[in-house]
Design brief:
about 280 residues, 8-stranded mixed β-sheet, about 35% helix, globular
């Protein structure tokens, strides 16, 4: 496996870090397709090393960026002025990735907030995407947020986007204590509170998604743990119901927490993902 790192300059001048994992071999034995991995809130692409290794072993090239304000990328930690900043970075990065692998199918894989961003991107730019895979995707505001609270959150974001009202619980990411401990001790993971600006940007996107699900016409893989306390599983179920023009393969993993790729059953989850990818790539060939 070949690993490389790099960066690009976003449209507003921030330096965005990215890394790649590629199969060994020449052009004749190179990757059969490309996966763009989109990480979640507060974390970074390096936490997906084991996912990349599994995908590379199955013949896929894997590319991942650290979102602005995350990991090794520049920017105020876990903060955006608008959702469009995320979308611009992701579109710019996808263009670069496609230039590295002309003619190969491209699949986008997003986890949690990354699933939200991957969906936002796909709804506007699904042409050229061979598939969309979502893990514990943040597609629906949680039931603990009332309509009034969501409006207040949006108002706070307008006047004080840097205000940080809440954070995530590390205990809820996985049933594996080692994963939780590594998460807490990872210097590149942001474990503080989420800015109102970023939260409002994600909620606004979530509210806009359902009416657009019928416009999706690409293969979609959904993976969600039934005991996920960080993102609402109903968002995944709603996508499965309403994306009537897409070929949806949904997996609801009984008892698993939020990070299904970091649960004790991760091998089964990754096998399901690779099996779906192989089918999508075969259909795209």
């Amino acid at each position: 496996m070949q690993h490389s790192e790099g960066s690009f300059t976003a449209t507003d001048g921030l330096t965005i870090y990215h890394q790649s994992w590629l199969p060994d071999g020449d052009a004749a034995t190179g990757p059969k397709a490309v996966v763009i991995l989109v990480h979640g809130l507060g974390e970074h692409s390096g936490r997906y090393q084991h996912v990349a290794e599994r995908l590379v072993s199955a013949g896929y090239a894997v590319h991942a960026l650290d979102h602005r304000g995350h990991g090794k990328s520049e920017g105020t930690r876990v903060f955006v002025k608008s959702y469009d900043e995320f979308m611009s970075d992701l579109s710019q990065y996808r263009t670069w990735v496609e230039e590295q692998h002309p003619g190969l199918p491209v699949v986008m894989l997003g986890h949690s907030m990354g699933g939200n961003l991957a969906m936002g991107h796909a709804l506007d730019h699904q042409a050229g995407l061979a598939g969309l895979a979502l893990s514990g995707a943040a597609l629906k505001p949680g039931d603990d947020l009332s309509g009034v609270q969501i409006k207040i959150f949006g108002l706070i974001a307008k006047v004080a986007p840097g205000f940080r009202p809440q954070g995530l619980s590390a205990d809820a990411i996985s049933r594996d204590p080692a994963v939780v401990e590594a998460y807490r001790n990872d210097p590149l993971v942001y474990t503080g509170k989420i800015s109102a600006g970023l939260g409002a940007a994600l909620i606004g996107a979530m509210q806009s998604f359902p009416d657009r699900y019928t416009t999706l016409h690409l293969p979609i893989w959904i993976g969600h743990g039934t005991e996920d306390q960080l993102t609402d599983i109903e968002g995944s179920r709603q996508l499965e119901r309403q994306a009537r023009n897409a070929d949806v393969a949904a997996h609801y993993y009984e008892g698993l927490y939020h990070e299904i790729f970091n649960e004790p059953e991760q091998d089964r989850v990754l096998d399901d993902l690779v099996g779906w990818l192989d089918g999508v790539v075969g259909a795209a060939a």
